[in-house]
Write a structure and sequence with these properties.
single chain; alpha+beta; Thiol Ester Dehydrase, Chain A; 5 strands; 25% helix; globular
Length: 161
Amino acid sequence: MNETSDIDNSLVMTEVITPDLANFYGNLHGGHLLNLLDKVAYACSSRYAGGFTVTLSVDQVFFKEPIYVAELITCYASINHVGTTSMEVGIKVIAENLQTRTKRHTNTCYFTMVAIDKQGKPTPVPPLVVRTEVQQRRFQEACARRAIRLSKFGGRVESSA
């Protein structure tokens, strides 16, 4: 896997929701979901970068529906955009009731992750190869989100990691 076109730019992770992860309403605690999403973003971006990454920002975490105890959640992550040292990781969460086999799209979010070297300094990542229409759409939408982030924080956000 020496060519950048062969680099994995997506990841799928699953977890069963147990009672110890529930809030007072009996739903998955939002903080636990954010923790899991950060792990998913780390795994996806580190695999792509071929080294360690750190979280720079989390954008647009949408809690569309609650996730219930005993449901299986599947997180679908993809690298949507790559800068010099940063990557946007989009994550879609699907909750599945294992008894009825019904699935619901419950959450979407975007993490900006920065690749770092052994000294903790930002390090370059391979360019993103966009092949499909879906990847192209994700790339274009990520470019728009990146432009908004840059306008809010002025300059290159990836250099501040």
